[in-house]
Design brief:
The complex is a heterotrimer of chains A (313), B (216) and C (568). With 313 residues, chain A is α+β, with helices and mostly antiparallel strands. Chain A is 35% helix and 20% strand. Chain A contains seven helices and twelve strands. In chain A, helix 1 runs antiparallel to helix 2 and helix 4 crosses helix 7. Chain B has one domain: Up-down Bundle (Four Helix Bundle (Hemerythrin (Met), subunit A)). Chain C has 16 helices and five strands. In chain C, strand 1 and strand 2 form a beta hairpin. In chain C, helix 2 packs parallel to helix 4, helix 4 runs antiparallel to helix 6 and helix 14 packs antiparallel against helix 15. Chain C is globular and about 75 Å long. The model of chain C has no long low-confidence stretch (mean pLDDT 91). The chains are: A alpha+beta (313), B mainly alpha (216), C mainly alpha (568). Chains in contact: A-C, B-C. At the B-C interface, helix 1 and helix 5 of B face helix 6, helix 7 and helix 8 of C.
Chain lengths: 313, 216, 568
């Protein structure tokens, strides 16, 4: 059913959450199309058939017709009851997380996502999940409202700062799907994207085991992963391209002019200050857009980030 | 039934057929406005209900900070002023212009008393550091959301106090017009609709008092 | 000389009046334009017609502003990354486009501009109940507009027209100026609503019983009730939001212990009825135009009249359907979804009744009627996609995507704005006494129809495929839809320019319009074009319904016989 309107939907990759939605959308589109065609044809037919012949045309007095009016009130009423029930059951299914769901913690912030796993692994803007198993995301925002949307799975849920919300899905095959933020959250709202990366069960376990669970690697490697994880790279490029904030490429040791006209050479202390108190000194030509990372990054984290930035020549 | 070729009394605007129609229309308009006022306060009451349902213990604790005695006095004062405004309308209907003016003045006096008491209440809270929102510094209430209660308290009583002030202005204006002899038993529409407004202001306080002060 | 037994609105009991026929002059010497002339007279006028026209001018100005913003937005979206403006500028533009179109154009457009002009005339009254309040509402509107301009001139606004917390409590833009502007504007809306309710109840000409009210009046009545009941809640919400920013009261801000979902409840409690405040007056216009141009009694008068009230009532109970993904409680979500479908029924009934009205009519496809057909087609699409969005599981997928954007443009623009255009072209000869160029007007309607569908149909597809709204950058797969949409919006722009051109031209050199060029039975047409300062030079008496096209015209031109006539 509804194959006529299939072109409107992206390929369904989580049938357990999306099949009912797709069928319902097909049904509504089809019924709407039939009624719309009926109304339009009737309108045009009447306009031609009963075209005004002269200004003295007499029209019959037809004030109402109870049977007819009742019919076209009751039939739509029945139709919308069907739609309501269908939509409701589909929605209950979206709310009922299967017991064996694999749980991942999600933290949303301006403008990125951090996904945390049971073993302490953290990934920024990529959520790796096993295929063929329900996955539950438990989500919370660090600042304003966001919304987690995966069109391929037909799921969406707002992410709030003062309570946890959740979604679930089950991707059947390995592959990738796009994640959007759909609750407007400011300057880079439209860049607050992420990917769902679906692995087969065994690949997923390998991937999880290989994840750096903190502490490993050189300071430069840790700094590099922190930049992605904390979303710094959403606004600061590492290759010199222009984004919301100044690029990190060749940042260390660079001479910058501030908005108040003073100049300074970027050193460890300036970077540290800019992370903890972003509004203190703003480089000319940029706006104060950044939130403080105080409490989100430890002193060691900041040192690692500085070490990494030093390498970006 | 007159059409517009017959002469109107001076107080009847040109687009009304007669004095009765104008009076009915004005009164209906005022009632519609009052409904709208109730919805306006209704929004605040909703915020109150929601937060009270979430933090019932906070509302009980915080109510103890409010001075029930002066709240009760203010309730009596306002009910009294509602009575005098009703008497003012009655005087107008009976064409007793002196009674009208005296009752209006008493109403204004009572409204001022209300505001003075309210002012002392506010001053006392400010001394304790109970300011709205961010400026809240009081430490006598052991609850993380205490500032929210007082946020709601200040919004409700503040918006109400603003209505009292507007009411004082309106009644004073009616008094000035009464002094000029603009009203009679034939025409007292402004007195009547201002009275309606004043009753509403009173009514809202009658809800505010138990909701904020008298929570056990 | 004849008599008629009718009941005046002021008493309600039936009385016998001496009546006679008044034929409006085709070449009036005195009109509301020629009397009380000059800028000062206009600025201080209490005449509902002049106030209506000034509202029309203000609304047109804001429509132009909002429209230019829309075209800039569409131009930016020609390419997936930056085309010509910064992300922050883009965010400000869509916020202002939304806020201006909703609060400054759609809400006041039909009631305050056309309604102000037509309502007293359809009731046979000389003015609205409170003319000075009417003028005050215009000035309050302008003060609200000034506040918004101050915001524009300072930091702009980037929160989206919904001002969702906590973004709006954190944003560095001029949230306070705009919320105060909209707060002030709300009073303008409340005053207009109050005025209309009192006028409809108390100022009807002798003989206009509730069952003889034009459907436009029923629609404006339902609208006014919603304005009076919903706007104060918006007012208090915006006041709380302002206090939140000034003082940090903490009711909506989670970092102070408040709840952002509560803000959404407050906001939509107004803003959903506001959707009906915008569309229901449009329904009124459609009923008037469709009967006039099919010369036929409306099909199902009571069904249409009462469905407006039903929509007004149920419209208050569905606000939560904007929040299916917000994290509100499951019970609330279920109930709101169910009620949303119920509100669809009266709307569907109206559409079918209008189509049925055409049956066996004498149909003349003049411009206003063309717009009615456009309305019926576009608004139906808006309605059906509304059913889609009311269905819970489908809404989860579609919420906050371009599907929603397309849906509300089909309803608000394809519905309200097209109805406004229908009404504007219908009453233009009455308001100005001039006739526009019919051929150009039809070309304009065609451009609007084509441009509109080209702009918004692709948005349904890309929304359904997952394109989120309020996106400055987008992923490449959506490019073709965005580009089609942008080209469509340019065609729409040209259409509106053409309309502005021929309407302006008709003012200078248009043909003189007769008092009743469409042969309507409506009471507003039984006056001169343009009308006299007091609308009628007699007190109209109504004995027939407004759509009794089977009765001869002379029965619709009755007025009280005055004392002078009685002597003869």
């Amino acid at each position: 059913m509804g194959s006529l309107f299939d072109f409107m939907l992206p390929e369904l990759k989580s049938p357990l959450t999306g099949a009912s939605t797709d069928a319902l959308m097909g049904f509504i589109h089809l019924v709407s199309f039939i009624i719309l065609a009926g109304v339009t044809i009737a309108m045009i037919y009447f306009a031609i058939k009963y075209k005004r012949k002269s200004d003295d045309d007499q029209t019959p007095l037809i004030t109402h017709n109870n049977t007819l009016e009742l019919t076209w009130s009751v039939i739509p009423l029945i139709l919308v009851f069907i739609v309501f029930g269908w939509g409701y059951s589909g929605w209950l299914n979206l709310k009922a997380v299967p017991d064996n769901a694999y749980e991942i913690q999600v933290s949303a912030y301006k403008w990125g996502w951090t996904f945390s796993y049971e073993n302490g692994a953290q990934v920024g803007n990529e959520v790796h999940v096993p295929a063929g198993r329900p996955v539950k995301l438990v989500m919370k925002s660090q600042d304003v409202l966001h919304s987690f949307f995966v069109p391929d799975y037909r799921i969406k849920q707002d992410v709030l700062p003062n309570r946890y919300t959740y979604v679930w899905f089950q991707a059947d095959e390995a592959g990738e799907s796009q994640v959007f933020c759909t609750e407007y959250c400011g300057t880079s709202h439209s860049d607050m994207l992420a990917k769902v990366i679906v692995h087969t069960q065994s690949d997923f376990e390998n991937w999880l085991a290989s994840q750096n669970t903190g502490g490993g690697g050189t300071p430069v490697e840790r700094g590099e992963s922190l930049l992605t994880l904390q979303g710094c790279v959403t606004c600061h490029s590492v290759d010199g391209s222009e984004k919301i904030g100044p690029t990190f490429q060749k940042l260390f040791g660079r001479e910058e002019t501030m908005t108040d006209g003073t100049t300074l050479t970027v050193d460890e202390n300036y970077i540290r200050e800019s992370i903890l108190d972003p509004g203190a000194k703003i480089v000319e030509g940029y706006q104060n857009q950044m939130v403080s990372y105080e409490g989100r990054l430890s002193d060691d984290d900041i040192s690692d980030i500085i070490e990494y930035i030093k390498t970006l020549d | 039934m007159a059409n517009h070729s017959t002469s109107h009394p001076t107080h009847v605007q040109h687009h009304f057929v007669d004095s009765d129609q104008q009076f009915d229309t004005a009164k209906l308009g005022m009632w519609v406005f009052l409904v709208n006022e109730i919805l306006f306060f209704g929004g605040l009451f909703c915020a109150y209900i929601v937060y009270r349902a979430w933090y019932p213990e906070l509302f009980q604790m915080a109510a103890l900070e409010l001075n029930t005695f002066w709240g009760a006095v203010n309730t009596v004062v306002l009910i009294g002023s509602s009575l005098t405004v009703a008497m003012a309308i009655r005087s107008a209907q009976k064409n007793q212009m002196k009674g009208l003016k005296i009752n209006l003045l008493i109403t204004i006096a009572l409204a001022v008393v209300f505001m003075v008491i309210k002012g002392f209440e506010y001053a006392h809270k400010f001394e304790l550091g109970i300011f709205p929102g961010d400026f809240y510094t009081y430490e006598g209430l052991d609850h993380p959301q205490a500032n929210v209660f007082f946020g709601i308290y200040y919004m409700l009583t503040g918006v109400h106090a603003l209505h009292v002030l507007i009411g004082i202005g309106l009644i004073f204006w009616i008094y000035l017009r009464a002094r000029k002899g603009e009203f009679s038993s034939e025409y007292y529409t402004p007195v009547e609709i201002t009275g309606l407004y004043w009753h509403l202001v009173d009514l809202i306080w009658i809800f505010l008092f138990p909701l904020l002060y008298l929570i056990e | 000389m004849a008599t008629a037994e009718v009941s005046p609105a002021s008493t309600g009991t039936k009385k016998t009046f001496k009546v006679k026929r008044y034929i409006p002059s085709e070449n009036p010497k005195k009109t509301f334009f020629t009397e009380e002339r000059g800028l000062w007279a206009w600025l201080t006028t209490v005449d509902h017609k002049k106030i209506g026209l000034m509202y029309l001018g203000s609304v047109t100005f804001f429509f132009l502003l909002g429209g230019i913003l829309a075209l800039l937005l569409r131009t930016e979206l020609l390419t997936p990354a930056q085309t010509f403006i910064e992300a922050d500028t883009y965010n400000q533009f869509f916020t202002l486009h939304g806020a201006i179109m909703v609060f400054f154009v759609l809400v006041p457009s039909i009631p305050a501009a056309l309604g102000n002009f037509v309502l007293p005339m359809q009731l046979g009254a000389k003015d609205v109940a409170f003319p000075r309040l009417n003028l005050a509402s215009l000035y309050i509107y302008i003060i609200g507009a000034i506040f918004t301009f101050i915001a524009l001139a300072s930091n702009g606004l980037d929160t989206g027209w919904t001002f969702y917390t906590p973004y709006s409590t954190e944003s560095t833009s001029s949230v306070i100026w705009v919320t105060m502007g909209v707060f002030i504007l709300g009073f303008s809306s409340i005053l207009t609503g109050t005025n209309f309710i009192a006028t409809i109840h108390k100022l009807r000409a002798p003989g206009i019983t509730w069952s003889k009210l034009p459907l436009n009046i029923w629609a404006l009545y339902a609208t006014s009730i919603m304005q009076v009941l919903a706007t104060p809640v918006l007012a208090i919400t915006l006041l709380l939001l302002t206090m939140e920013r000034f003082l940090g009261v903490g009711i909506f801000d989670p970092s102070l212990g408040g709840d952002p979902v509560l803000y959404q409840h407050f906001f939509w409690f107004y803003s959903h009825p506001a959707v009906y405040i915008m569309i229901v007056p449009g329904f009124g216009i459609i009923s008037e135009v469709i009967t006039t141009f099919s010369k036929k009694h409306i099909f199902g008068y009571w069904a249409i009249a009462l469905s407006s009230l039903a929509i007004a009532f149920i419209g208050f109970l569905v606000w939560g359907h904007h929040m299916f993904t917000s994290g509100q409680s499951a019970v609330a979500t279920t109930v709101f979804s169910f009620l949303t479908f119920l509100v669809g029924i009266p709307t569907g009934i109206k559409i079918l009744n209008w189509v049925a009205t055409l049956y066996k009519g004498s149909i003349e496809m003049k411009t206003p009627m063309v717009y009615v057909f456009v309305f019926l087609f576009l608004f139906s699409i808006g309605g059906f996609t509304g059913i889609m969005l009311g269905a819970l599981s489908a809404d989860i997928h579609l919420h906050d995507t371009y599907y929603v954007v397309a849906h509300f443009h089909y309803v608000m623009m394809g519905g309200t704005l097209i109805a406004l255009l229908a009404g504007l072209h219908y009453w233009w000869p009455k308001m100005t006494g001039k006739m526009y160029n019919e051929f150009q007007a039809k070309i304009g309607a065609a451009l609007i129809f084509i441009g509109f569908n080209m702009t918004f149909l692709p948005q349904f597809i890309m929304g359904s495929q997952g394109m989120p709204r309020r996106y400055y950058n987008y992923i490449d797969q959506f490019t073709i839809f965005h580009q089609t949409s942008t080209i469509g919006s340019y065609i729409l722009g040209v259409g509106f320019l053409l309309i502005a051109y021929y309407l302006a031209k008709s003012l200078m050199s248009g043909e003189r319009a007769g008092s009743n060029p469409w042969g309507s039975r409506g009471l507003e047409w039984q006056s001169t074009s343009p009308p006299d300062l007091h609308n009628f030079d007699h007190t109209p008496v109504v004995i027939n319904g407004p759509y009794d096209y089977h009765k001869p015209m002379e029965e619709f031109q009755l007025g009280l016989a005055n004392a002078h006539d009685e002597k003869h």
